[in-house]
Amino acid sequence: MATESNGAAFSRRDFLQQLQGWGGTALMMAGMDALGFGIASAATAPPNLTGGGAGKKVIVLGTGVAGLTSAYELSSAGYDVTVLEARDRVGGRSYTARKGTKLTELGGEPQVCDFDEGYYINPGPWRIPYSHRGYLHYAKKFKVGLELFNNENEHSYIKFDKGTGPLAGRPVRKQEITADTRGYANEILAKQVRQGALDAEFAPGDKELFLDYLRSEGYLTKDDFKYIGTDGRGMDENPGAGLDPGVPSTPHKLTDILHSQTWRTLQSVGSLDMQHTMFEPIGGMDQLPAGFVRNLKPIIRLGHVVEKISQTPDKVTVAYTDSDGQKGTVTGDYCVCTIPLSVLRGIDLDVTPEFKEAITGVSYALVCKIGLQMKTRFWEDNHQIYGGHVYVDDPGVNVISLPSTGWLGEKGVVLGFYPQGASAARVSAMSLAGRRDYALSVGQKVFPEYTDSNDGSFSIAWHRVPFNMGGWAQWTEEGRAKYYPKLLEPQGRLYLAGEHLSYITGWQEGGIESAWSQISKLHKRAMAAA
Amino acid sequence: MKRLVALAFSALALGTSAKAQTAGATLFAQNCSACHQLTGLGVKGAFPALAGDPFVVGDPKNPTYVLLHGRGGMPNFSEDLSDADIAAVLSYVRSSWGNHAPPLDAALVAAVRGGGAAPPKERSVLPGH
């Protein structure tokens, strides 16, 4: 997720800093609200829903994290809550495939996960940024154990086939590319600075400090600012005991790195949602939904597929078909609907034509994943890679991700591909066996042990999954302006919530914070009416 | 002699068109069938049917534009498929499952692209989410 503001952010920041100068933090916060930063989009705790539920009944549709958050907070606040879930499990996209997990995509073959007991893949969300405080709030509250997710591994490989030269078409350790690219870049810049070519850039006293920085950042030699390698790029022989100081390695040539394209994996700092520290729930992504369920009264009705939502001025009624084929309705004072817009657009809704149009105004991500169970943890045993990602430039794979759980254990489940967009369309058109074989063929070129070690797989193409029909909402700038605001407002007694109604789309945090935001509005209205 | 040439020519044309049809079918199976299904019937409420769709068999510039820019849930294929590929797959779609619209050529796709430059597509080396 790229941030949406660039140049404009600076002027807004300047403005806010001025406000803070004049009126302190309170004025600055008011200013943030006025500028549309929206306190809710940076919420760190659930809303305080005081006053009881006034005997009001709320129907929550969907049990992804948005639905579970809504159900938990509203029922805790005293509302009479009923939850309808289409599937025979809770969690929505926040789920985990393990032995026996069944999935049949639209137009696809039936699939049963054939992993060994205790092994799993998170086919949907799989990593929790430290900035996602809503998720962390509930993880802490429900005692869902977290472990570190290794989102960056310098000892992992980059294997780019589309570049040219001696570094193309073979796995290269990321640490070599990082050290050499930055080393040379700093050397070149230092040379220019020392020659006086950039004097105009510096205030008095800056230049020497800047050179100090370049030398430090690029591991340049002390006196002549040359990059000649550094132990962090890896050693030809690691140091040992006794008389074994190790053997240093030789940097690649700058031209070889440039033409290999491998430098494309480097960025000065991880994007906001990709930095250390990253977490994952111990035991799988389904552990947070399970935590919600442990703390909810039994108000969830599984296997209830929503067919129609109708309204009167006073009530909202949801018609459903249950897993036995029985039709029925449930009526309440309000409805919080967390069904993805990709699915909601196919449901009979009692809303204005403008609202209906807005629901269709966003596209959903095509995205695939495959979990490959491996008989041995060869990436650890033979390659000393503990978690993190192998980067490949085949867009049908993108990354091969190594598990951040079960370290040094017997087996492990590797994420074998993670394509998006048109590449996901192509991968998802393959048979289940075809997807597996394709993933294996790409991984084989990185790890010689790959194919022989494989003894199970589970793949998913989210755009073909019933009740999801896509990975996440992908708003365009036009859609954000034209449709998004409409969907944030209730339609009669219907409130929408989910990652699609946030600026944190494609993350569980978006679902949680959207739920907080929408149930706050609902509560305010219910209390005003009481 | 004239007749012989004409025969040979039509055989050649037929051969070429059969070959294009096969290429189009393969491209469709690889890139489109996950959603629109091999039957061209799509999935009701999820993926539109291409069989009998007036948009698909109408002015070929319109479906070409959709392949180059995406629409709704459909991704853009501008960087994944060449002009010739897009012409082949659309010609296949326009003449399959009871559709009877004429084929289109790569030149039309290039014209719709406008200047031949594909619109830049966001493709990060590091996948988000």
Structure description:
Chain A has 16 helices and 25 strands. Chain A is of the alpha/beta class. Chain A has 3 domains: 50-86 and 303-363 and 473-529, FAD/NAD(P)-binding domain, CATH 3.50.50.60; 97-126 and 366-464, Polyamine Oxidase, Chain A, domain 2, CATH 3.90.660.10; 162-265, de novo design (two linked rop proteins). In chain A, the strands form 8 sheets. Chain A has a 5-stranded parallel sheet, covered by helices on one side. Chain A has a 4-stranded mixed sheet with strand order 10-9-20-21. Chain A has a 4-stranded mixed sheet with strand order 15-14-13-17, with no helix packed on it. Chain B has a single domain (17-113), classed as Cytochrome Bc1 Complex, Chain D, domain 2 (Orthogonal Bundle), CATH 1.10.760.10. With 129 residues, chain B is mainly α. Chain B is 52% helix and 0% strand. Chain B has helices spanning 2-31, 33-36, 54-57, 61-69, 83-94, 106-113. Chain B has 6 helices and no strands. The A-B interface holds A 1-2, 106-107, 125, 264-265, 267, 271, 273-274, 342, 346, 360, 363-364, 366-367, 391, 393, 395, 398-399, 418, 420-426, 428-429, 461, 463-464, 469-472, 506-507 and B 29-35, 37, 43, 45-47, 70-77, 79-81, 121-123, 125-129.
